[in-house]
Amino acid sequence: MELKIKKGALEAQKTPCLVLGVNEGKLKTQALQALDQHLEGRLQRSFRSKEFCGADGEMLLVHAGKTVPWERVLLVGMGKEKHLSLKRLRQSASTAARFLLERKVCSFLLAFDLLSIRNSTLAERVQAQAEGVLLADYRFEQYLGDKERKRQADLTLAGIWLSPNSKRIDAESAVEVARQVCAGVSFARDLVNQPGNCKSPEYLARQAEQMAEEAGIQATLLTRKDLEREGCGGILGVAQGSCRDPYLIVLQYHGGTKDARPIALVGKGVVFDSGGISLKPSEKMDEMKMDMGGAAAVLGTMLAAARLKLPVNLVAAIPAVENMPSGTAFRPGDILTSLSGKTIEVLNTDAEGRLILADALTFVGRYNPRVVIDVATLTGACIIALGHHASAVLGNHDGLVRQLLKAGERSGERLWQLPLWEEYAAMLKSDFADLKNIGGRPAGTITAAAFLQNFANNYTWAHLDIAGTAWEEKGRPGYPKGGTGFGVRMLIEYLRGAT
Ligand code: BES
Ligand code: MN
Ligand code: ZN
């Protein structure tokens, strides 16, 4: 698919469909009236009959006459003007793209630049539109037959129109940013959507290795033997029930100066979480192939960062395991010795993510990181707290949390902070080991983070719980059912500001 910046009079743009955003109730603007002259008053008639009033997500498609080079006009409702935001803009671009694709209109021109969005730069607005289109264009069809594939039309050209005083070069570099970021998002989505039978820890490791090779990133794979030699008791304990070997995937990207301390990204890579001996109920267990959504977000971010040549140093660590019940599986009551030396009493084998993250968090400490961010589908409790519209963020440094919250707001991948007061840490006291791996039902997301904090006390750290956001259950604009790639856009936004 081609993405092109267009300038000049709208009346002179040749396109199968001109797409315009309309604020709710704002149906008499100069632009709309000028447009309607070419449409023989069809817009005003539709407005009068209340077929369209600009409410969020509403759409009106009309065919144009011979006086203009556009074949059609699509109006997209943007909702109330005071709620207009980059998020809404991105969403509207997705909605329009999907709507037109379903009607086999594979080329269009977005003219959202007629709207004004407070506190936003041209680059941000163009990036949001380009992302909206690219995210809507994503499909996972590796396992679909040719017939099913052909039923879906492919986007050929999306134009983004700029008003006269907008700078073309700014817009073009924003499109480039969107392209690389969305390459990272698509890579992450593909990994999440891959079914468990095809997605062993080794598969994840090979995918990471191949991506690294192509992007100019250094990759190291620690095998079971390496993990045994190091003493990664958390990773080995969880992996013990599966006949598939665990890996610790380590990637290094050098975009900054030689001596600049790296930012470390840690991603939970449980390729399938059955719960282990503390087996999960069968309903929706299929979705637990997404339990490597954190790993996918980290890998997608590494890919996008390298392609964007961000001037930072990055190290990524991904513990990749499968959590299965079997005769060799670890059991409730087992005590594991983590890489840090701290012992952990396992009271529930389904609280496995924190066990593998504990080792990975200790491991990245060796790189003297200036910041460590871990990303994990860690707790069902996070879905109870925030639903599917935000991820939880917790950390030991308010400045870092604030930066992440801001990146979340700007990227539309929202975060919400939960507290990490010491009372929560006390809920993890064990009678037999340094700590236990569950803190009871209350505040499940917080006690999980409090557990991780024990392994992150030597550096500035934040934890993102993406259990509610890594997987889309139904499908919505820009997000087909399946993996969302949540985290990539937000982390790139953060990294672009952290340089
Ligand atoms: N991977 C799950 C968390 C999860 C649940 C992610 C639903 C996405 C959707 C995690 O390993 C888990 O099982 N957590 C337990 C922890 C509990 C045993 C303390 C949970 O949330 O129930
Ligand atoms: Mn689990
Ligand atoms: Zn899990």
Structure description:
Helices cover 36% and strands 19% of the residues. With 499 residues, it is of the alpha/beta class. It has 2 domains: 2-161, 3-Layer(aba) Sandwich (Leucine Aminopeptidase, subunit E, domain 1); 182-498, Aminopeptidase, CATH 3.40.630. Strands 7, 8, 9, 10, 11, 14, 15, 16 and 18 form a 9-stranded mixed β-sheet that branches. Strands 1-6-5-2-4-3 form a 6-stranded mixed β-sheet, with helices on both faces. Strand 10 (269-273), helix 10 (293-307) and strand 11 (313-323) form a beta-alpha-beta unit. Helix 11 (353-364) runs parallel beside helix 15. The two termini are 31 Å apart. The longest helix is centred in the middle third of the chain and has 26 residues, at 168-193. The protein has 16 helices and 20 strands. The chain has helices at 30-37, 42-48, 86-102, 122-136, 146-151, 168-193, 201-215, 224-230, 233-239, 293-307, 353-364, 380-386, 398-411, 422-426, 444-453, 488-497; strands spanning 2-6, 18-22, 59-63, 72-77, 107-110, 157-161, 218-222, 247-254, 263-267, 269-273, 313-323, 335-337, 343-345, 371-376, 391-395, 415-417, 435-436, 461-465, 471-472, 482-483. Bound molecules: ligand BES, manganese (II) ion and zinc ion. Zinc ion (ZN) is lined by residues 270, 273, 291, 352-353.
